[in-house]
Design brief:
Elements lengths: L8 E5 L15 H12 L9 E5 L11 E4 L5 E4 L8 H12 L13 H6 E5 L9
Parallel strand pairs: 1-2
Antiparallel strand pairs: 1-3, 3-4, 4-5
């Protein structure tokens, strides 16, 4: 089973911050990245992706962090992203992810920040109940 691009979800850690960064969650780099991606994904030429804020992806040593997932697709977690410079890179990565049936983008075809920033790759969840 494959999912349509509209079922792809971009999870953005809104609590990500650099060591010693602001305590105010609205000023944290993760929250800034979430706002920038939400705005970018509203543009007509943006990939069809649902963006959701998450409180923590537990990759605190590599902020900012995102996860990309979809039904029947591999999930990827990426870190070391910048709210100031990574939006276009993330959109490029999302387009490539959406163009696959299983979420597996060949390593050489991934944006450089995705090649260097990958934290984890999680297999698709199986929904068949036969054991």
């Amino acid at each position: 089973m494959t999912s349509s691009p509209e079922e792809i979800c971009l999870h953005v850690c809104v609590t990500c911050r650099q060591a010693g960064g602001p305590d105010d969650k609205a000023l944290r780099p993760g929250a800034i990245l979430h706002r920038a991606l939400t705005e970018a994904l509203e543009q007509p030429d943006a990939p069809k992706v649902r963006v959701e804020p998450v409180e923590c992806l537990s990759v605190c040593k590599r902020p900012c962090t995102i996860a990309v997932s979809g039904p029947g697709r591999w999930t990827y977690i990426y870190g070391d992203l910048s709210p100031d410079t990574s939006v276009e890179t993330i959109l490029d990565g999302l387009r490539r992810y959406a163009a696959t049936s299983d979420g597996l983008v060949p390593w050489r075809e991934r944006p450089e920040a995705f090649r260097k920033g990958v934290v984890a790759r999680i297999p698709p969840f199986k929904t068949d109940s036969a054991a």
